[in-house]
């Protein structure tokens, strides 16, 4: 790790010159706001919050920071869950919220060009108004496209369509030298050279700053429906996930919620779900271009659920009912955070292993004296485990217990051929798990890549692997 310099009044004046005086702040409210993300990590305030409005300004900021050895932490909406946008070495928090224009929606090429601060909900709204679809749907709708790209965000529709990486066709990126590179474009195929776009996607702001993105769109499916299926046991529910996949049904979403999560969601939203009296629930979401195809998928998925032990298969056939169920699923992190001290494991395993994983994870909870609540993306193997502090656990013992439980959950994932982070990234809180997963040869390659992009190590230092 380099010895970084402090931001002097001369450097501040130069920054003000680049982005304008009002866009450089050391006001306590701004420093506090930009010191955190949504992870339970303690705050790391930057020295200054710098809010550029153009690629040229970002070029200027990075060149200056690189020359002066000042750390720079790119920030989107700060909804990340692994401390990736915490300015752990202070310096500059590069706030990209203001670069929030949808530049173009190109219906002839099925592409959208957006600035990094555009919210995922805004991309959905603008494209769907034209009958188009940007499938990635990470649960936090106020996350930015820059943040989604930098974490390779996944979300609710990954099972059918894939993740953010599968829908990014081009990027404009500013390097620490101040140079701008244009990677990819609106063309659909590309066999030219190394895939730099794939290095930037998921690099958590450590290689360059994304200043523009070209997103791939598809036509929006015409019909959508959702099955809400209560089960008498968790194991039956997760076995049904395996069976649905085995029978070659591909819902766009296949989410798991235990009863406790259903009750938490009802309390948090103040709205009742169709049933809350069974131990486990699956949400099976399907979409199609004809009513016949939709009905066929619904019928088959519903039958499989019933054969596998569901006591019912409620069908939410209108947008209002579907939205209410999605709202319940999407509020879970906030609901649990408000009620408990917790950390979240974001493992992803081969989907067929989910029943085994769920059974073996119980032993981790018992061993470390924590509560474990699995929720979420069962259909793509990316179950989230809330690791929850029991009331009787003393505060001073929590960090150690939580880390030990997280470590065992990750080990279990690796043992089953999975990964430590399916969609949130390693950021700051989980970076020490990378080497365990990829081994020394890949670690050396990654260090070499970082050194090539950012030789002085000023960009989001101490993240991902460092
Ligand atoms: C309730 C809740 C639900 C969530 N559900 C999901 C989910 O279903 N799926 C999922 O994948 N995630 C989920 N998340 C996590 C989070 O929303 C995503 O990680 C999201 O992609 C973060 O976007 P952001 O704009 O908030 O990025 P930030 O948190 O601000 O930053 C994340 C990382 O991206 C970097 N970065 C941001 N912008 C740029 C840029 N322009 N150039 C370079 N680097 C940049 C930052 O340095 C940091 O490393 C959830 C979070 C919450 C709170």
The whole-angstrom Rg is 22 Å
Mean pLDDT: 96
- Percentage of residues in helical conformation: 25-40%
Count of runs of 4 or more consecutive helical residues? 15
CATH class of the domain at 102-219: Alpha Beta
Distinct small molecules bound, one entry per kind: flavin-adenine dinucleotide
- What is the number of beta strands? 18
> Which fold name corresponds to the CATH topology of the domain at 102-219?
Uridine Diphospho-n-acetylenolpyruvylglucosamine Reductase, domain 3
Largest sheet, strands/sense/barrel: 5 strands, antiparallel
Strand content: 15-25%
Known CATH architecture of the domain at 102-219: 2-Layer Sandwich
Structural category is alpha+beta
Low-confidence runs of at least 5 consecutive residues: none
Give the overall shape, derived from the CA principal axes.
globular
What is the terminal-to-terminal distance?
A: 8 Å
What order do the strands of the largest sheet run in, or round the barrel if closed?
5-6-10-8-9
Throw out a few tags for this protein.
five-stranded antiparallel beta sheet, four-stranded mixed beta sheet, Alpha-Beta Plaits, 37% helix, Uridine Diphospho-n-acetylenolpyruvylglucosamine Reductase, domain 3, 466 residues, single chain, alpha+beta, 18 strands, binds flavin-adenine dinucleotide
């Amino acid at each position: 790790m380099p010895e970084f310099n402090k931001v002097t009044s001369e450097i501040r004046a130069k920054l003000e010159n680049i982005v304008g005086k009002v866009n450089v702040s050391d006001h306590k409210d701004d420093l506090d706001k930009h010191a955190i993300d949504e992870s339970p990590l303690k705050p790391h305030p930057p020295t200054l919050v710098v809010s550029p409005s153009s690629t040229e300004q970002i070029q200027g900021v990075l060149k200056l920071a690189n020359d002066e050895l000042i750390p720079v932490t790119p920030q989107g909406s700060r909804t990340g869950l692994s401390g990736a946008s915490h300015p752990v070495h202070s310096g500059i928090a590069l706030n990209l919220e203001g670069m929030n224009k949808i530049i173009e929606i190109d219906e002839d090429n099925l592409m959208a060009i957006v600035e990094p601060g555009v919210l995922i909900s805004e991309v959905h709204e603008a494209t769907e108004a034209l009958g188009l679809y940007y499938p990635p749907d990470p649960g936090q709708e106020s996350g930015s496209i820059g943040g989604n790209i930098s974490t390779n965000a996944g979300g609710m529709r990954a099972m059918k369509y894939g993740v953010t990486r599968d829908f990014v066709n081009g990027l404009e990126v500013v390097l620490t030298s101040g140079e701008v590179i244009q990677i990819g474009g609106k063309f659909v195929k590309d066999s030219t050279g190394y895939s730099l776009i794939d290095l930037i996607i998921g690099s958590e702001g450590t290689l360059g700053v994304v200043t523009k993105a070209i997103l791939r769109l598809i036509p929006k499916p015409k019909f959508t429906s959702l099955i809400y299926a209560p089960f008498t046991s968790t194991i039956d529910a997760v076995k049904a996930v395996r069976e649905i996949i085995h029978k070659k049904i591909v819902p766009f979403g296949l989410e798991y919620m235990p009863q406790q999560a259903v009750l938490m969601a009802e309390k948090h939203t103040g709205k009742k779900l169709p049933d809350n009296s069974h131990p486990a629930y699956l949400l099976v979401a399907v979409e199609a271009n004809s009513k016949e195809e939709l009905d066929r998928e619904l019928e088959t998925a519903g039958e499989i659920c019933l054969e596998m032990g569901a006591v019912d298969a409620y069908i939410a056939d209108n947008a209002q009912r579907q939205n209410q169920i999605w709202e319940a699923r999407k509020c879970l992190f906030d609901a649990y955070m408000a009620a408990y001290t917790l950390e979240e494991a974001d493992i992803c395993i081969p989907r067929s292993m989910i029943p085994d994983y769920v059974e073996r994870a119980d032993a981790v909870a018992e061993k470390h004296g924590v509560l474990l609540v699995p929720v979420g993306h069962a259909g793509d193997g990316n179950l989230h485990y809330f690791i929850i502090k029991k009331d009787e656990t003393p505060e001073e013992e929590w960090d150690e217990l939580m880390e030990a439980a997280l470590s065992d959950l990750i080990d279990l994932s690796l043992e089953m051929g999975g990964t430590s982070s399916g969609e949130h990234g390693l950021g700051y809180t989980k970076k020490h798990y990378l080497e365990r997963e990829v081994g020394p040869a890949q670690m050396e390659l990654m260090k070499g890549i970082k050194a090539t992009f950012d030789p002085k190590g000023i960009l989001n230092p101490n993240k991902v692997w460092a």
